[in-house]
Amino acid sequence: MSTSPRDVILKPIISEKSMAEMAEGKYTFAVMITASKNEIRDAVEKIFNVKVESVKTMRVHGKPRRQGVFRGHKPDWKKAIVALQEGDRIKFFEGMV
Fold first, then answer.
1. 5-87: CATH topology
2. Which of 34, 38, 58, 64 qualifies as a FRET site for 8, CA 20 to 30 Å off?
3. pTM of the model
4. How far, in Å, CA of 83 to CA of 25, rounded?
């Protein structure tokens, strides 16, 4: 089954650490939990028209939550840190850095 690049990249992660890494050309995204590094690389290159140097991924476990006496947890998700080649920038984030 073929997935669209916009289905692979769910949303950007905006935090103090990710904003500091943007100055070094590294961008952080929440991605589809079944996405491989190659799919993430292809999706970022097609959506933002940049050249990706490397992709690092990690599974993030969902935090425990409580609603009254009922206990549960948020769903697990996957995070990808994408390093771009020297000189490439994602224009979407330019106003933030």
1. Alpha-Beta Plaits (3.30.70)
2. 64
3. 0.87
4. 6
Are the CB atoms for 64 and 27 separated by under 8 Å?
no
**For residues 46 and 7, what is the distance between their CA atoms, to the nearest angstrom?**
12
Q: Using the 8-state DSSP alphabet, how is residue 28 labeled?
A: E
Instruction: List per-residue pLDDT tens for the chain, 97 residues long.
Output: 468 889 999 999 999 999 999 989 999 999 999 999 999 999 999 999 999 999 999 999 999 999 999 999 999 999 999 999 998 998 877 765 5
3 Cα distance to chain centroid: 16
Contact, 82 vs 29, CB < 8 A?
A: yes
